Amino acid sequence: MQSSSFLPEEHLQLPDHPGVYKYFNEADELIYVGKAKSLKKRVSSYFNKNTGENLKTRRMVKEIRRIEITLVDSELDALLLENNLIKKIQPRYNILLRDDKTYPYLLITKEHFPRIFQTRKHIPKRGTYFGPFASVKAMNNVLDLIRDLFTIRTCKLDLSPYKIDEGKYKVCLEFHIGNCQGPCVGLQKETQYLKDLEQAKHILKGNLGVPKAYFRQEMQSLAENLEFEKAQKMKNKLDLLEKYQSKSLITSPSIQNLDVCTLVSDEKYAYVNYMRVINGAMITSKNVELKKKLDESSEELLITALVRLQDQFQSDAEEILVNIEPENPIEGLNLTVPKIGDKRKLIELSLKNALFYKKEKALLQGLNQDKKDRVIRQLQQDLSLPDIPDHIECFDNSNIQGTNPVASMVCFLGGKPAVKEYRHYHIKTVDGPNDFASMKEIVGRRYKRLIEEGKPLPKLIVIDGGKGQLSSAVEALQELGIYGKMPIIGIAKRLEEIYFPGDSYPIHIEKKSESLKLLQRIRDEAHRFAITFHRNVRSKNAFNTQLTEIPGIGENTVDKLLKHFKSVKNIKSATEAELTELVGKSRTNSLLDWIEKNKGA
């Protein structure tokens, strides 16, 4: 692969070759990654006056300050590279799969007499992973099947040969009930254990034909040797495997190894169902939602989702059934739109799943929106507000024994946290622990800035505290000349009393009211945000003071360490190589000496 960098106006100099292009903005942030059969034609299309009529596309093109390209051998290679970059960096204008679940895997460990167990952490050096499984129930069914068919150990003992030879272990209950053959005391050879494990791997891959042939061969061999009791056990295992396969069969077993991917969409979102089918059995089914970013075509959305899902589920299928005929086929990606037969039935089944997922999402979104609207309308009624409080900002101070005073502001839009609008504040004009003066400072700073930037003011301001903090916030608004333009209240923690400016008596909202719960959630979020910031500042200041006393370690080095490792704990647990790469050998030696002396501190 070969990479080069260009300015936007140099797009006509790009080669007529397959590859990946990356757009960077003025801050040199990657904002979009795309693939192309011809880089020159594709990139030039963004800057052609006759194209790019989509508003979002025009907005993106205005941001482009630099173009970087990577040449590859084929359009399929470009598609795979594009997928890897998007998955790793997640640029702002690229399609993202909306999926907040952490799916489980089955892990075969890398050790003597390997174990099989479920995990949600993917650490490649631990062993071989199978999955992820979209359904925990399906994963447990496979694991139960393997444990019924083979005696795979479940203990965590180190079964290195010398440990077994030393006679350190005794057999446990699993041995006595027949679930283990006692490798810990040398009753099972590792070669036979690995032979069984190899068959288990085939089951995990969905290839049931190999273990079926294995059990059938073993059964016949034992019967020929007149070991009928053992042969019957093999027959029972073969029957168990046949029963499992018949339950998961959804089409003809002659359909060997293929993927099914279908898409339905509306104006803003696309909904995709993806299925893996091996020997007629569905081993994976997954639904995902994609948010449209640049008015992408259905074909583009489908291929984007397909490549990422194949990567996630480690698919090696050569044939992929889809419901959208590709206008621009990608060489190496075998997409088929079946019209009749078993394959068409698979498309119809997948489409049924995608449509149900779309309907489910729409229903859930409607319910959530109804609830949010209901809660903020109830809050408007409970507080007698002139407007619906769909934009609420809440302030809180944090200082412990007067040290490192800080404050926070959290923002809720439509009853939901708008995390990008959250703000931290260092108290600048107040000496010592003075919550009232600190509150006046941060409220004044916040709304002075909004006025200067011409941004909208909130529909409700919430102050975490009683009458004193509320009065200080009101003073700040009065000095800015905006008091009375938006409601402001204080909420006291002890009895959840709501105070209005100039009113000596608080009001109480029904304890079980959804509107009070919303106010409590906003208040608690502001408190959490302030406390977290205060803890980080206090930790950083204490750590800075300690570190800057070490010879050769200055403030710049400390800032570099914290920026890279994010926390003091990570710095202390970093390896010597990691520290050396960041701050050099000499500073690393000084730092390691200090860490060693302060262990447990």
Automatic annotation (TrEMBL):
GO terms for molecular function: DNA binding; excinuclease ABC activity. Its main location: cytoplasm. Keywords: Cytoplasm, DNA damage, DNA excision, DNA repair, Excision nuclease, SOS response. It holds the Pfam family UvrC_RNaseH_dom. PROSITE patterns: GIY_YIG, UVRC. InterPro entries: GIY-YIG_endonuc, GIY-YIG_endonuc_sf, GIY-YIG_UvrC_Cho, RuvA_2-like, UVR_dom_sf, UvrABC_protein_C, UvrC, UvrC_RNase_H_dom. GO terms for biological process: nucleotide-excision repair; SOS response. SMART domains: GIYc. GO terms for cellular component: cytoplasm; excinuclease repair complex. Interacts with UvrB in an incision complex. The UvrABC repair system catalyzes the recognition and processing of DNA lesions. UvrC both incises the 5' and 3' sides of the lesion. The N-terminal half is responsible for the 3' incision and the C-terminal half is responsible for the 5' incision. Belongs to the UvrC family. This is UvrABC system protein C. The gene is uvrC.
